[in-house]
Design a protein that fits this description.
Layout (H helix, E strand, L loop, with lengths): L4 E6 L3 H16 L3 E4 L7 E6 L1 H10 L7 E5 L14 H10 L2 E15 L4 E6 L2 E6 L5 E7 L2 E15 L6 H4 L11 E9 L12 E4 L4 E5 L5 E6 L2 E6 L1 E18 L4 H9 L1
Length: 267
């Protein structure tokens, strides 16, 4: 199997720590060396916890090239593939090569402030644009340079297909098969008045299309949240959101099916 080095990440719950201890022992019996934390030499990253732990791992490892597999000790566990009771089967199937790689697209936002400084934020699930301290935001939204709406409300979410089952879904967004490369724009508490004409439902756009956001007020306070990582900005002149070149590689086994996962987790 080549390197036979595996990185393990976990949250600090009792169940996760116990699972990590058992997993390390089993991996050693199969001839693997495991390390706690990330090593660039690893052939696989195992994330023990829930979806939040997996997202934290992806960002900590800077969207790594090697595949990731999740062991679910959390609640929803939509990204997580393995249950703690099936560790032996997981290791055996992995060693036998009985798996596939699911490539998940990501999204990124370039934030340009009045001084011309640019910062870039990437997300596996979504990018959220909102006002600081829950203030309403007023945004001019364009798609490929064409004005689409004059938005007013709590903010907007731009979600990937993989992120369609997360925050966007809780606000009435559509579930999108992750095999589709698309971005979904979902409003957060939109106002629809004579002054502001905001979409009240999600819109779905192709991944090759960019979204430009121009805050209406020059003296603005904007918060950008990528996968739960929050950054505050002042005097934002433009935010450009587009599909990112970064890809997250999830290990999937032969019995995995996205829509079966949707059914068991949501219905």
């Amino acid at each position: 199997m080549g390197k036979k080095l595996i990185s393990i990440f976990t949250n600090e719950t009792e169940k996760s720590l116990e699972t990590r201890h058992i997993l390390e022992q089993k991996l050693a019996r199969y001839g693997y060396t495991s390390v706690r934390g990330y090593s660039p030499e690893s052939e696989l990253i195992i994330c023990i916890g829930g979806d939040g732990t997996l997202l934290e791992t992806v960002h900590y490892c800077s969207f790594p090239e090697c595949p990731i597999i999740g062991i679910n000790t959390g609640h929803l566990g939509f990204f997580q593939e393995i249950s703690p009771e099936n560790l032996d089967k997981f290791i055996s199937d992995y060693q036998s090569g009985e798996y596939s790689i699911q490539r998940l697209s990501t999204v990124e936002a370039d934030v340009i402030t009045g001084g011309g400084l640019k910062s870039t934020h990437a997300g596996l699930n979504e990018i959220v644009i909102k006002g600081e301290q829950s203030y309403s935001v007023h945004l001019h939204i364009m798609i490929n340079g064409m004005p689409i709406e004059r938005f007013s409300g709590d903010g907007i979410i731009v979600a990937t297909s993989a992120g369609s089952t997360a925050y966007s879904y809780s606000l009435g967004g559509s579930i999108v098969d992750p095999r589709l490369e698309a971005l979904q724009v979902t409003p957060i508490a939109p106002m629809n008045t004579t002054a502001y004409r905001s979409f009240t439902s999600s819109i779905l756009i192709p991944a090759e299309v960019s979204i430009e956001i121009l805050p209406e007020l020059e003296d603005n306070r904007i918060v950008v949240v990528n996968d739960g990582i929050q950054t505050s900005y002042y005097n934002v002149s433009e935010i450009k959101i587009k599909a990112s070149q970064k890809v997250v590689h999830l290990l999937r086994f032969k019995n995995y099916d996205f829509w079966n996962k949707v059914k068991t987790k949501f219905l």
